[in-house]
Amino acid sequence: MSLRRRFWLLSALRWLPTGFIIPVTALLPLERGLTIAEYGAVAATQGIVVLLLELPTGGFADALGRKPVFVASALVALASYVVSALAHSPLAFVCASALAGVFRALDSGPLNAWFVDAVHDDPAVSDRSGTVARGLSGYASVVGASIAVGAVASGAFVVWAPLGREGSLALPYWIAAGLAIVQVVVATVIMQEDRSTRVAGVLRSIRATPRVVLDGARLLKRSRVLRALVAVELFWGFGMIAFESFMPIRLAELLSDRDQAAAIMGPVTAAAWGVSALGAAMVPLLLRRWSMTGVSVALRLVQGATVVGMGLAAGPVGLILGLFATYAVHSAAGAIYETLLHEQVGKENRATVLSLASMAMQPAGSLGAIVLGLVATGVSTGLAIVVGGVVLALAAPLFLVKEPVSAGAAGRRDDARSADR
Q1: Domain ranges of the chain
Q2: Which CATH architecture best describes the domain 3-420?
Q3: Which of 140, 131, 156, 137 shows the shortest CA–CA distance to 14?
Q4: What is the DSSP letter of 7?
Q5: Mean pLDDT of 139-146
Q6: 383 phi and psi, to 5 degrees?
Q7: pLDDT digits (tens, 9 = 90+) for 290-306
Q8: Which residues make Cβ contacts (< 8 Å) with residue 218, sequence separation at least 6?
Q9: Three-class secondary structure of residue 105 per DSSP
């Protein structure tokens, strides 16, 4: 099996469980007696844990290796799914959410970094950037398709309820747990990695992690382009709140029926991720005609415009079509963005820098939730979505940032990439 197919297979196994649990993530705790406020605290737990562990786990993946961290993330995900399926109290759901936070922090970077490392280590690959871009665009398509398939299948299993109505909402978590076991087995077999340059042993890797993290932060400080790319996540994280969190609220307003909106959002979400997969598949075609920078600028502006269109939509059909248009460019933009990010770093800092970018998105999303929530409460949900779209589009000029033209800057870029050659 080729490297790219192994990468896509592991990606499918990673994201299919997510598709299964998305439709029931909020419903299961509420069914088991939690209030909406208690569920909010449960959900916040995951975000806090991710924020605290994102950077250390990225450094750990750079120090120890991609494969053991990826396998460890799947094992923690397995624990999270099982605890969620068995939970019947707020404390139990908090524990499950905390485990999910650990899983997400460990999962942020090692698989993609493994693929990019392998591409750069293969002397037979001449067009590394193009190969990485095609691989990551396919990855984005696989993610979208996996989530869509998982969400649809989850709904079917809940309706079927082979374990009885009482356990129907927990069934997707049990299926996700089974898929996590499959992920561990498959990753152990097909995820080949040369760890000869890594720090030997878990304890030594843990001790080496602060140095790796510091090296990644220094790289960020030295590179103007890298700083601009990480800053993109600030605008993107803020803007994504508009179409991820406020779209269902706006739909309920337009329909004047929350239950109907909830019923519609399941298939709409699955379809949106399917459209996202198709959009990501178009990346290689776009890059044949235009540069990565040019496509990145265009996609950010287009996505900002589609989100603004969602906010201005006067009816539910227009809102849903706007969501589909937004997702059509969502994964494509993400795939090219990550390719540009990988070009700025070497393998010794790759997972750390991915974690730095992910960390930038966390507080930006929180700020977006607060600010857009105030706009929605004080004026309207439609205006909040429009503001989110405008902020998202403001990231476009950051892709045009270049390093100062000097021998020193060129030398630093060569040093950053030397480990890949």
Answers
A1: 3-420
A2: Up-down Bundle (1.20)
A3: 140
A4: H
A5: 91
A6: -65, -35
A7: 999 999 999 999 999 99
A8: none
A9: helix
Handedness of CA 148, 151, 155, 161 (dihedral sign): positive
Q: Is residue 18 within a helix (H) or strand (E), and if so which, with residue range?
A: helix 3-21
Residue 212 sits at φ, ψ, to 5 deg, of -65, -45
| CA pair distance 158, 166, nearest whole angstrom | 10
The tokens for 404 are: 């100062």
- Which string of b and e fits 305-317 if b means at least 16 CB within 10 Å? bbbbbbbebeebe
Q: Which of 68-77, 257-266, 290-299, 397-406 has the lowest mean pLDDT?
A: 257-266
Q: Residue 275 corresponds to which tokens in the numbers above? A: 């459209």
Q: Comparing C-alpha atoms, which of 73, 65, 57, 14 is closest to residue 355? A: 57
User: How far is the C-alpha of 298 from the C-alpha of 306, rounded, in Å?
Assistant: 12
DSSP conformation class of 22? G
Query: What's the predicted TM-score (pTM) here?
Result: 0.78
Alpha helices in 108-127 (DSSP H): 110-121
CB contact at 8 A, 300 and 396: yes
Give the whole-angstrom CA distance, residue 128 versus residue 262: 44
Q: What's the CA gap between 64 and 70, in Å, rounded?
A: 11
First CA to last CA distance, the chain: 24
DSSP code for 109: S
